[in-house]
Design brief:
By secondary structure, the chain is α/β, with parallel strands linked by helices. The chain is 49% helix and 14% strand. The relative contact order is 0.15.
Length: 263
């Protein structure tokens, strides 16, 4: 299927690995002009080098700490100077500190607010003028299955990612008349570095092995396996397509059936 995305300018944040990287690579395969960002320069350079080798494409890449407003403004400025106004923004970030309510202090909450919610708000604020001028745009936020079914020991992620979904729904109502869609992709248990870290943390708490924790996660999924990052990326790219132009304000789970609710 031709998603009609050739030459669209795409910025994928937190894309040196995991779901973000998989999305960036799939956009490249669709003929988009793609920029990637990460707070880790060495990981970012490594990823850009590997993409050049495997896909024969030179990504624009920018070091960006999503907790810093100045970095966000700089990232958008660099990408727009190099590639043009951003047509498709993928708001992605790492997960905030794990923990239960009594284990978290004000700084934990403040940092998570910047990382998860305000990074999306600030990035979107920077790209919206260009999208409105074109009467076309896609804003896709990567959240988590926890927005529909909270995950134990992830108080900050459960709370702030849910805030992103409410913000996105409100924003979709504001910008729909400009041909801009706003949607959320909620991944389930996906085999990324973040999931591995959570498995290690849980293993330390329970005295189990992280391999057994990962196996238990997979067993809890009706499909009896963990997702691959490219499976989540496929939904991201579809939501950016012309075919998905009438889908907005939605949160779509890619979770293998883990979420128990019917909506």
């Amino acid at each position: 299927m031709d998603f009609q995305l050739k030459d669209k300018v795409v910025l994928v944040n937190a894309s040196s690995k995991g779901i973000g990287r998989a999305a960036a690579e799939l956009f490249i395969k669709e003929g988009c002009k793609v920029a990637i960002s990460s707070s880790n320069q060495s990981n970012l350079y490594k990823t850009a080098t590997e993409i050049k080798k495997s896909l024969n494409y030179e990504c624009e890449w920018v070091v960006c700490d999503l907790n810093k407003p100045g970095d966000i403004e700089n990232t958008v400025d660099v990408v727009q100077r190099a590639l043009g106004d951003i047509d498709i923004l993928v708001n992605n970030c790492g997960g905030p500190t794990p923990g239960k309510f009594d284990e978290l202090n004000d700084k934990d909450w403040s940092d998570a607010m910047d990382q998860v919610l305000l990074s999306s708000v600030r990035m979107t604020r920077e790209v919206l003028p260009g999208m409105k001028a074109k009467n076309w745009g896609r804003i896709i936020n990567i959240t988590s299955l926890s927005v529909k079914q909270p995950v134990d020991n992830l108080m900050l992620s459960n709370s702030l990612r849910s805030a992103v979904t409410a913000w996105a729904k409100s924003l979709s109502n504001d910008v729909g008349e400009y041909g801009i869609t706003v949607n959320n992709v909620a991944p389930g248990y996906t085999l990324t570095g973040r999931l591995y870290e959570l498995a290690v943390t849980r293993a330390k708490e329970t005295g189990d092995s992280h391999e057994h924790v990962l196996a238990s996660m997979a067993n809890s999924v009706p499909m009896k396996r963990l997702a691959r990052p490219d499976e989540v990326a496929a939904m991201i790219v579809f939501l950016a397509s012309e075919q998905a132009g009438y889908v907005t304000g939605q949160t779509i789970a890619v979770d293998g059936g883990v979420i128990k609710s019917t909506y």
